[in-house]
Design brief:
Length: 270
């Protein structure tokens, strides 16, 4: 896979699909591009996708420093430049949604749309992350890798999904152990994400926006999604009843359909 060099830090990426509309998929906290396993085929049949691993996870380099939001945004910009992705749609989940929003308010002329999944804009007083998730991250160093991942998956998915899909979750565990960021990187990211806010700049986003969340999200309060939709003129909001944080897997068929409809409408307008 190709890599882009960012001041000595190599960021691994790939391009799949061949459709005229281009989408950059931005992973969540500590996760690599396998987060999009349920979107990769469904979306690349119609669109060209750029997937990459954040610094600190997957096949990208794992430095001890550089996990602030401005660095993550420039990582994204560098990958887009290397892949010749001009004015794509940015689709970010959780922390990836924060990166996408930061990019949108920093480089407003470099994208043509936003899809924000299970994420927050940092409204004062609301909280970007739940106390439950914050405590989970702080406790990571004391857990063995398998236990750490299993606890995380129970937070990512709704209790109903976990109960009905135990075998599927067991299959996910080894890949999560191998590709996820270390507990140290998670704890480097945690205070940055807690303090993240572009809330007072959301009204400057003029591209079409789709915001998606599950109403049983145990990591990011779905009220954050409602606030994003309220602040961005014309934003479309979809809340999935009973769904957890991991919408991209838990409700992938509905989510993929909503994203395809949204992106296809953008194609018709252009």
């Amino acid at each position: 896979m190709p890599k882009v060099d960012r001041n000595g830090i190599k960021i691994d990426y790939e391009v799949v699909g061949s459709g005229p509309k281009r989408i950059v998929l931005i992973n969540g906290m500590g996760r690599d591009r396998n987060s999009w396993i349920m979107q990769r085929h469904a979306l690349s049949e119609r669109f060209t996708l750029l997937l990459y691993d954040h610094r600190g996870c997957g096949k990208s380099d794992r430095p001890k420093e550089g996990y602030d939001m401005p660095n993550l945004v420039v990582d994204l910009k560098s990958v887009m430049g290397a892949a010749w992705f001009k004015k794509p749609i940015l689709m970010g989940v959780s922390m990836g949604g924060m990166v996408a929003q930061s990019f949108a308010v920093t480089y407003p002329d470099m994208l043509c749309g936003l899809v924000l999944v299970s994420t927050s804009a940092g409204k004062p007083g609301l909280g970007n992350l739940t106390n439950q998730f914050e405590q989970y991250v702080k406790n990571m160093p004391g857990c063995d890798p398998e236990e750490r991942v299993k606890r995380g998956l129970k937070l990512i998915f709704s209790p109903e999904f976990v109960e009905k899909n135990k075998a599927t979750i067991d299959v996910l565990v080894p890949g999560f152990i191998e590709s996820s960021a270390s507990p140290e990187v998670y704890n480097e990211l945690l205070p940055r994400l807690k303090d993240f806010s572009v809330y007072d700049r959301l009204n400057g986003i003029k591209v079409p926006v789709l915001v998606l969340a599950g109403d049983a999200d145990a990591i990011v309060d779905p009220e954050n999604t409602r606030e994003i939709a309220r602040m961005i003129t014309g934003a479309r909001e979809v809340i999935y009843p009973g769904a957890g944080h991991g919408l991209v897997i838990e409700r992938h068929e509905e989510l993929n359909g909503d994203v395809i409809d949204f992106v296809s409408q953008l194609e018709e307008k252009r």
